[in-house]
Specification:
156 residues; 3-stranded parallel beta sheet; 18% strand; single chain
């Protein structure tokens, strides 16, 4: 029914694809999505989702494609995602993710464009390292305002 909020208590286990892209969704991705273990494709791209990527996504053992691009997701990429053996396509670009990109298994196969426009990310495959000698990328750029020099003459 329209305008009625319903809390989801159980979820189908036979779903293989969820495409919720370009729906103007706001808020956090529900942790319960990580319990749909039959998922092969998950796409929440081009929304206005906030919060962190649920660590429960690491339980999606059959997942082959994950697209969370063009949202406002923050925080680190959960290390649990590195355990997804069948993940062949990953797009986390255009978010506000930070920290080191997980390494191992499928994560070693993804290219820069999987992480594009997340200025706080570092590590392979990006050219920005995560070591202590690496300066952090500024997340915001400040413009220095210099007042005009015509006031100097009024002091003399």
């Amino acid at each position: 029914m329209k305008g009625v909020e319903i809390e989801l208590e159980r979820i189908l286990n036979i779903l293989t694809t969820i495409d919720m892209s370009s729906n103007k969704f706001v808020g956090k991705i529900p942790e319960i999505v990580g319990k749909i273990t039959s998922l092969h494709v998950l796409n929440f791209s081009h929304n206005k989702l906030t919060g962190q990527i649920p660590s429960s996504f690491g339980d999606l053992a059959a997942l082959e494609s994950l697209d969370l691009s063009s949202n406002k997701l923050v925080g680190e990429i959960p290390m649990q995602l590195a355990s997804l053996n069948f993940l062949a396509a990953l797009n986390l670009s255009e978010n506000q993710l930070v920290g080191q990109i997980p390494q191992g298994k499928q994560f070693n196969t993804f290219l820069n464009d999987s992480y594009e426009d997340n200025l706080g990310l570092c590590g392979f495959p990006l050219s920005k390292g995560c070591g202590p000698n690496e300066p952090p990328e500024p997340l915001f750029f400040m413009k220095k305002v210099i007042p005009p020099l015509d006031w100097i003459g009024s002091w003399y």
